[in-house]
Structure prediction request, 351 residues.
Amino acid sequence: MSVIGFDMYNPPHTMGSSHGKARIIRKSYSEGSHFVPLLNRSYELFFELQNQTNLEIIQIIGGLMIAKKGANSLEGIKHSSEVHNCEIEILTSNDIKSRWEIFNPEEEMEGVLDLMGGAVFPENVINTNLNFSKEYGAELHFNTKISKWISDDNYVTLKTETGDTYYGDKLIICSGAWLPNLLKDINLPLFIERQILFWFDPINNAEKFLPQNSPNHSWEYEDGKMIYIQPNFGDGIKAAIHHDGYEVDPDKLDRNKINLNEEKKLRTIMKSYIPDLDVDSVRSAVCMYTNTPDREFIIDFHPEYKNVLILSPCSGHGFKFSPVIGEIAFNLINNGKSKFSINSFTIERLL
Ligand SMILES: Cc1cc2nc3c(=O)[nH]c(=O)nc-3n(C[C@H](O)[C@H](O)[C@H](O)COP(=O)(O)OP(=O)(O)OC[C@H]3O[C@@H](n4cnc5c(N)ncnc54)[C@H](O)[C@@H]3O)c2cc1C
Prediction:
C-alpha cells in the first residue's frame, strides 16, 4: 500500500487549528465517558511516540476543573471517573487555596483534579509523525492545495490547484476548518469559530506557574462558560476563553488582528481567580475551532462513497485524540471497521 499526503501549507503551521506549543490532555472526560476508551489509547500512543524520540511529546501535570458545586462540568468528570476508574481528587475551595496559593476560587466553588491531566506539544507531535510517515514510505506534498476530488466507489481522482492529477483507491479528508470546501455535496452544519489565545507573564510568583508547580486549570465563570489556562512551558502562561468566538471564513481570517476588548474580557474574568495574571499579555495567536452542533467529532465514511473517509477531531477539543483517530482511520480505511465505539461520530446524525 502506498500513501500520499497533501497539505496546502507546510505543517506544522499556524494557519489552521493545531498550533500554539501546548495542548491540554485530560482523561476523566467531562464531555462524556464514551471518550475515555479513546483517550486511554491516545495516552499509550503519545507515550510510545515520546519513547521512540528524544522530543517532548506529553507531560503529565494534572488538570484542575473549578466550578460551582454541582456544575455539569464537574459531574461529568466524576461520572467518567466512576465508569472508567480514572484517578481524580475532589477538592473544596479551601483545599485549592492551600494547595496552590496562586488560585483564588469562590467559597461555593469545588475543584476536581484529574491526575492524568497534562500537556501534549502539537508542533513536536506533528513533526515526529510526518518524519515517521516519510520513513515508512509515505509521499508528502506540502504547499499543495487540493481543489477537487471525484470518487466512483473504487477509485478516487484528486486535482490540485495547480492542475496536477493524482489517482488512488481510497481517500481520507481531514481538512479541519476547510472541511466544508471539500464537502460541498453534503452541506455539514459546521460552525468555524475564531478562537484566540493569550500568553501572560505573571506579576508575582512566576515559579508557581511552572508545570512542576501548577496543573492546567479551567474555571467555569458562568453556567457552561469557561476559561482555560496552561502553566508556563517556556513561552508564558497560555490562557483563553473556551468557545467565545464568532464565525469566520478560514480563507479570510485575519490572523494578526486581535481587538483590545478581547484581552480585556479574559483579564476581567481571570483577575479574581488568578490575581497574578491581571497584567498585559506578552503574545497572542488566532486559531479556529471547527464545531459540530453537538460538539462531538466526525469519523465516518462519506454517505455516498465508501472509499472516502471523513475526519474532523474538532469542536475545540480534538488534538488529544489525534493518535487514536489516526489509528481508527487506518483500521476503517483498510478493514472497514474499528474496535472502538465511534457511534457518536457519524455523519448521519448531522444530516
Ligand atoms: C486555540 C485552540 C486551542 C485548542 N486547544 C486544545 C486542547 O487544549 N486540547 C485538545 O485536545 N484540542 C484542542 N484544540 C482542538 C484541536 O487542536 C483541533 O481540533 C485539532 O488540532 C484539529 O486538527 P485538524 O487536523 O482537524 O485541523 P488542522 O490542524 O487545521 O489541519 C487541517 C489541515 O488541512 C489542510 N487543508 C485544508 N484544506 C486543504 C486543501 N484543500 N488541500 C490541502 N490541504 C488542505 C490545512 O492546511 C491544515 O494543515 C484547540 C484548538 C484551537 C484552535
